Recover the amino acids of this structure.
């Protein structure tokens, strides 16, 4: 693994990148995967370069890369590395190596369905290859395509979403569903970006998002970087902000949406949605079709439980007594009755969601 560091002022770096308005979180370059190490933000911009799929699996597990679409593409890039690493001489042996890598990548995080979606897409492409060399090329090209398409999808979603927001809205968001949670541009933050690009003036309120602080470390960072008027609040100030008229609308991302419209997203999303409902504030979810799981029932979705030290301290500083019990779920479920609309690249699904989600998929056939 290779690290290379930049100071936090990386405008010059962005000017060199193909996508000049937002960060590119993950990239395939010279047969290696390059990603921003998100555990170091906002204090340092560190890029890591991997040539082994096990390193990509560790990066997903340890939140070097996080956010549902970003881990979907990381899984795909992981399989592309596995294909290049393989010494197999037959197609069958190469597929068998890919299956082993797929299992290791799949087991890293259980809730975001984009990871298994990304892995399955690449496995399908691999099966279609005839020779070892052809199969390697197919897998690498398919994972690069997936990354490019992620940006296109986010931009299309943004255009649909922008129609739901008015000039001078203040929009609350939770966690980070931005450029850093995708390849670039973002889902929920992509909608906010597109709203601004459509000429409307909007402000953003970002929740801090304890315990890992994706809101303060990542959302506040990327929005400030892109010149947005963003205010950070502690998670405990969601009710205060809504009661005092500081928020007009909410938009968040998702890790998994099931066919009934139950949305799994960062822990605390349910609280934000409940509070928005209490104050009659529209609550929107923005997610690509790859985040939908049409097979699993809401009650069967696995909620990732993370280590207690994320809660017993802030950064390196311990803030709780030794030996205290901790419950640290990384995600929660927001029921469909609290959701005003689900923004996708195929349009906005409105309640009743079981019908509107089905239509989105029929239109996608
Ligand atoms: O634990 P994380 O940081 O991977 O959780 C991320 C979220 O919950 C995001 O809101 C979700 O993945 C949508 S990202 C476009």
């Amino acid at each position: 693994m290779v690290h290379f560091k930049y100071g936090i002022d990386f405008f010059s770096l962005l000017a060199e990148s193909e996508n000049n308005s937002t960060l590119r979180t993950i990239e395939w370059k010279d047969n290696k995967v390059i990603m921003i190490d998100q555990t170091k933000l906002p204090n340092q911009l560190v890029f890591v370069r991997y040539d082994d799929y096990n390193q990509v699996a560790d990066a997903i597990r340890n939140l070097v890369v996080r956010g549902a679409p970003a881990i979907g593409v990381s899984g795909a890039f992981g399989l592309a590395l596995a294909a290049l690493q393989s010494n197999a001489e037959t197609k069958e042996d190469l597929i068998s190596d890919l299956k082993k890598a797929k299992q290791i990548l799949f087991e890293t995080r259980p809730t975001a369905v984009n990871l298994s979606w990304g892995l399955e897409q690449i496995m399908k492409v691999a099966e279609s290859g005839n020779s070892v060399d052809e199969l390697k090329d197919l897998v690498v090209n398919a994972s690069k395509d997936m990354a490019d398409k992620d940006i296109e999808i986010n931009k299309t979603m943004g255009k649909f979403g922008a129609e739901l927001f008015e000039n001078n809205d203040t929009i609350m968001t939770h966690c980070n569903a931005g450029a850093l949670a995708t390849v670039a541009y973002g889902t929920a933050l992509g909608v906010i970006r597109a709203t601004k690009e459509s000429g409307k003036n909007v402000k953003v309120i970002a929740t801090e998002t304890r315990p890992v602080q994706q809101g303060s470390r990542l959302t506040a960072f990327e929005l400030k970087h892109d010149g947005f008027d963003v205010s950070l609040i502690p998670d405990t100030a969601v009710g205060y902000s809504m009661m005092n008229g500081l928020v007009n609308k909410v938009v968040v991302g998702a890790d998994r949406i099931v066919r009934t419209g139950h949305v799994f997203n960062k822990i605390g999303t349910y609280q934000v949605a409940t509070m928005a409902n209490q104050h009659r504030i529209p609550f929107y979810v923005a997610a690509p079709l790859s985040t939908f799981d049409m097979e699993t029932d809401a009650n069967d979705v696995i909620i990732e439980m993370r280590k207690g030290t994320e809660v017993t301290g802030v950064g390196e500083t311990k803030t709780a007594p030794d030996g205290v019990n901790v419950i640290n779920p990384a995600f929660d479920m927001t029921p469909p009755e609290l959701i005003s609309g689900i923004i996708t690249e195929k349009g906005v699904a409105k309640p009743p969601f079981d019908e509107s989600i089905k239509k989105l998929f029929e239109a996608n056939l």
In short: The longest helix spans residues 132-162. The chain has a mean pLDDT of 94. The chain has eleven helices and 17 strands.
